[in-house]
């Protein structure tokens, strides 16, 4: 613990030392006018706490530091996403909530290339609200809905009539799984307005989903390795069994890289 505290102490001092206080609009009207050096008192003022409270953080002493306070520290010190992550992990052991979302179209070239090079299996990228942001050609051939405007896996699987025909054993093997995943996601990120709206839309629109939601309490974080039975036009409406595999690109942990592989047994 002491080594961890010492480490974050040194980082916080370094992050504070690199900032020119004269450039900060938050200190523009402070009297007397601060010098170039950003002090602990300045950071305390910018984050709305006492100097002693901020000093305890910078000294690496254990306190009940709130997430909102740490986010204000990150803003005051102009921390990058990686620096904010380091601060949160060192102080709370958790990842920070609500880092600014990057544009869905802003895909790392390596991730985009890997997706396009997949010619044996359908695969796609989705965000934390299950919006499909990119898909390979085979995914579009198996599941033409991904080519429609603003495709969303949950809306299609839970609300679209064709999903109930194409995903066999729809209620037990699809709806209950996906609603259990939505339950985890909604509770893991309550500040995600898009996710909350998606849950409301699905429950408002479909009586079966409302019934399953009210009678079930299962939670599922992901469907990696889950087996689905499909009946798709692409396969001449003959049954196929597939498994889904979910990967998280390290460059974009807000995205899921999903492969769909046929089972032969």
TrEMBL record:
Residues of the HTH cro/C1-type domain: 36-85
Gene3D superfamilies: 3.30.450.180, lambda repressor-like DNA-binding domains (1.10.260.40)
SMART domains cross-referenced by the UniProt entry: HTH_XRE
Matching SUPFAM superfamilies: lambda repressor-like DNA-binding domains
One Pfam entry name: HTH_31
Name of the molecule in the record: Helix-turn-helix transcriptional regulator
């Amino acid at each position: 613990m002491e080594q961890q505290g010492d480490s974050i102490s040194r980082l916080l001092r370094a992050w504070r030392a690199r900032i020119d206080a004269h450039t900060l609009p938050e200190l523009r009207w402070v009297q007397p006018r601060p010098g170039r050096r950003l002090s602990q008192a300045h950071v305390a003022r910018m984050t709305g706490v006492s100097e002693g409270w901020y000093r305890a953080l910078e000294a690496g002493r254990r306190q009940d530091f709130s997430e909102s306070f740490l986010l204000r520290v990150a803003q005051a010190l102009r921390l990058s996403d990686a620096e904010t992550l380091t601060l949160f992990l060192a102080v709370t052991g958790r990842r920070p909530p609500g880092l600014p979302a990057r544009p869905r179209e802003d895909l790392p070239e390596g991730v985009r290339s890997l997706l396009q090079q997949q010619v044996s299996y359908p695969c796609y990228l989705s965000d934390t609200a299950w919006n499909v942001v990119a898909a390979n050609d085979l995914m579009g051939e198996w599941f033409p809905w991904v080519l429609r405007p603003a495709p969303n896996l949950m809306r299609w699987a839970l609300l679209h009539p064709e999903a109930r025909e194409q995903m066999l054993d729809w209620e037990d093997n699809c709806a209950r799984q996906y609603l259990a995943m939505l339950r985890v996601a909604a509770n893991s990120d309550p500040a995600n307005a898009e996710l909350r709206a998606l849950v409301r839309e699905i429950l408002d629109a479909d009586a079966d989903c409302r019934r399953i939601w009210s009678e079930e309490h299962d939670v599922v974080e992901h469907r990696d390795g889950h087996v689905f039975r499909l009946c798709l036009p692409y396969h001449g409406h003959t049954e196929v069994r597939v498994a889904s595999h979910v990967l998280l690109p390290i460059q974009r942990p807000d995205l899921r890289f999903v492969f769909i592989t046929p089972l032969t047994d």
